Amino acid sequence: MDHQNGGAVTELKTAQEEYLNSPQIRYYYGRVLYTVGRYQKAADQFLACLKLRPNYPGALGNLGLCYEALQNYPKAVETYKAAIHYEKAKQGPEDAEPFAYYPVLLAQLGQDDDALAVLREALGASAKSFRTNYERLEVKGPAGGARILIVA
Question: Residues 74, 26: one domain?
């Protein structure tokens, strides 16, 4: 753990203990825990954040990342789907991150057609926002050869 992230973990842990009912502190504590590889503890913080404020912006997508890092792929898929469902239903600009993370996981799981479908849907729904993310997605072509799709 580098010095900067270690300091952030310490400060946010203290803040979280002092302000137990702050979804914002829980969210940022989860982010820094994820950054230093403490995926289960990060997931716990995102869950606490969501308990305090359901659909807290970014918390579902980041929870999906935690489940993916923990190799709990069914839970990651379920969480990404919930994040995308929320983004589609809300008013205002969509958060592109769940649309970027989910197809990468699908491709890793060998579900290439589904991964491409999610990417197409994301570009149609939120092209400007989605392009702010960069994802490299490798899928199998028609003859089994690899195609690389880069969204930037």
Answer: no
Q: Read off the pLDDT band of 7 (50, 70, 90).
A: low
User: Under a CB-based contact definition with an 8 Å cutoff, are residues 134 and 151 in contact?
Assistant: yes
> pLDDT tens digits, residue range 8-54?
666 666 767 776 788 998 999 999 999 999 999 999 999 999 999 99
How many angstroms from the chain centroid is the CA of residue 53?
17
Domain that holds residue 70: 61-152
* 52 and 28 part of one domain: yes
Question: Do the beta carbons of residue 34 and residue 65 sit within 8 Å?
Answer: yes
According to DSSP, the residues that pair with 140 across neighbouring strands are 146
Lowest model confidence (mean pLDDT) among 18-32, 84-98, 102-116: 84-98
Burial class from Cβ neighbours inside 10 Å (0-12, 13-18, 19+) for residue 24 reads middle
Backbone angles phi, psi at 54, to 5 degrees: -55, 140
| Co-location of 65 and 112 in the same domain | yes
Q: Verify that 95 and 27 share a domain, yes or no.
A: no
